[in-house]
Amino acid sequence: MCRWLAYSGTPIRLEDLLYRPRYSLIDQSQHSREGVETTNGDGVGVGWYPVDAAGEPALFRAVGPAWSDVNLRELAHATSSPLFLAHIRASTGTPVQQSNCHPFRFQNWLWVHNGSIREFARLKRDLVLAVDPELYPSMAGSTDSEVMFHLAITYGLRDRPVAAVERMAGLIESVAHRHGVPDPLQMTVGTTDGDRIWTFRYSSEGRSRSLYFSTDMTALRALHPELDTLRRLSEETRLIVSEPLGEMEGAWQPVPESSYGIIQQGDDELGRFAPAGP
């Protein structure tokens, strides 16, 4: 499987989350505590929206392990962003190549995924045929994650993200049922249009991979008034992670099973996620 994080808030250097925390994403690439695999060394990527810039996000993806990528370290030290997604990959069977590394990008959208489609090779043809033909040329890799992304776009991700991902999940379960594949879908997903972040935690078997969100800044400052760094972050700052970046009491809350969340200006949202039939 994989590990990922999504950040929105006061612009910070990428290294502040990728490298500096005790259990940073780079540390998790070798020492994951809650993943299926301890090591996630089959690629790394980060997509970010530059400060004071509009349009497509920038993207860095590499096939080597995150812990030894000197280019990533240089980029993370020099780059600040108010919104970014980062991912470390553990392949579930598809090749280790750059086009299979996350995040995936389409126009102003980014997408990261941890999980898998069970027996994807058997289901892939039916799933790919459901992708909008106009989107097909933009699929460069061979992963189930990229197919899921393009199915979500096909079903209206750009207009109704939650409904689109519910239809995507429903299609996968329907196709799997026809092929006799039980409990086909395992996913935690992070996706963003550069303004809001949507996150999803769901599995067909009801035992989804780990996912957490940070406590709101007001509550976190009240819990830890001794931490000056928290004062520099805006009230809107939020973080979604596959597993906590540290052990600060009260900082992390688990995303409920079968749910979605929306990180946005003003009140965030948390709701029930249920696949929709095709």
Automatic annotation (TrEMBL):
Tell me what this protein is called. Answer: Glutamine amidotransferase
Could you tell me one molecular function GO term of this UniProt entry?
Answer: hydrolase activity
Q: Where is the Glutamine amidotransferase type-2 domain?
A: 2-244
- CDD domains per the record? YafJ (cd01908)
Q: Which InterPro entries match?
A: EgtC-like, Gamma-glu_amide_hydrolase, GATase_2_dom, Ntn_hydrolases_N
Record-listed E.C. numbers = 3.5.1.118
First-tier enzyme category under EC:
hydrolase
- Which controlled-vocabulary keywords does the entry list? Glutamine amidotransferase, Hydrolase, Transferase
